[in-house]
Each structure stands twice: as C-alpha cells, then as structure tokens.
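2024-03-11 09:14:02 INFO queue: dequeued item Spore coat protein, len=244
2024-03-11 09:14:02 INFO validating residues
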Amino acid sequence: MNIITYLNNNNIIVDENITRKSDRNIIDISNQIDLIVMIQSRLMNNGVTIIPRINSTIGKEVESFRVQNKKVEKILKSINLNDDKSNLDYYILEKGNMALDRAKKTFDAMDNEIYFELIRRSMNNYEMCLGRVDEGNLKLEENEVVKIRTTKYISYNLIEHDLFNYIKRVKRRGFNIQTEKVIDEFIYKSSLSEKSKNYLTALCNYPFETMKLIYKYRYYENNNYDEWIKKIKVAIEIDGDEII
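2024-03-11 09:14:37 INFO prediction written
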C-alpha cells in the first residue's frame, strides 16, 4: 500500500491546489488544533506497520538542535578569542550567549528517560506527522474530508512534532501567541500525558530562529551591521519569551 492509497482509505485527499486563507492576519488556532488531532487519529487508526517510502524522522530534530548548539558555542568562542572584534561581533556575542543559555536550559529540561519513553510510544503506535499542518497545507472540507496539499513532509515521528512545527510557523507569521496555552489545548485534545506537555514545552523554549542566525553568521563576508541587527531582533521576537 502506498501513501496516497493509505490517505484515501482514511478520507484524506491530496489536493495541490489548496491555498492559504486570503487574510493572513486572521488565524484560528483552536480550529487548526482540532484538525491536527483529527488527521493524526486517522493516520494511526488502521494499525498499519510500515508504508513504503515514508521516512522516519524520530529524534532527528532534537539531535539537529544538539549539533547546532555545539556549533554555535564553538562560533561564539571563536568570536570571543578574536582581538579585533567589531561592534557587530560584540552584539552577536551578547545575543548569541543569551540564546545559547536558553538552548542549554531546553536540553536540561528535556528528561532523557521521558524522551525515550515517548519515542517508544511513537514507534509502537506507528505515529505519523504531516510535517506541515498550517492552513496552507491542511484543510477540512465538507463531509469530514480532510485535504492536504502535499505528502512531501510526511514521516514517522512523535505526533508532538506536528504541533511544534505549527507553532513555529505561526510565530514566523508574526502572531504573538501564548505558547503554553496552545500546548495545553493540544495535550488535552490529543489525550496526551504530562510527559508530552513537558517535552513540547522544552522544544518550544528552544530559540531556533536566533540560533539559526548565529550559526550562519561566520559564513557571511562583509557583514552589514544594520542588516544583522535587524535580523537578530526579528529572530528574538519570533522566539518569544522563555517558557521554562
């Protein structure tokens, strides 16, 4: 059975013509969470084992954050050892170390025993994630038919990561959301445990936008001060306040 057949059997239709709502300033997070929970339930309801050509991304995002964390730490140390630091270097050091401290808190809060327990649950349930569950890729039509725009991002993964990716996209669109409340709503509607809540809280605390920029900083030549200050400020705003 291929993925298209599997989706069709579960009343999920692939429609490449799905478009985002015309007004990008309006969002209904509760409604989209309902839809995320609905499609996750359908993706798991047949107890099918492995569908060909669907990759497993379990653990890959967290591991990429760990690798990024080490590389950013190395970059900041290199900048700090430079005797001829620019004003931008000093700014990057200040904001980068703040982001690094926050990233370390994220990993400190991520209990390894709980993390591996969630991985085992995901593997036992053959949990799937769409990867993209925003309004531009996931919609509910009449008669409970769910439409998705692409199967490109579907993978075996902890279902918590669909919400994590949705929160990231919502933040990038400039919405100031109460992340903890969004997590609580998803946990309740998905009938997940406190362990899932703690895991999601740790994930969403990770300053992914700022860390991504710091990682790129040393690979650019002729860095423009004003341009980078603007980029860093936007990244910090998207990452939002710490939640752990």
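2024-03-11 09:14:37 INFO annotate: The mean pLDDT is 91.
2024-03-11 09:14:38 INFO item closed
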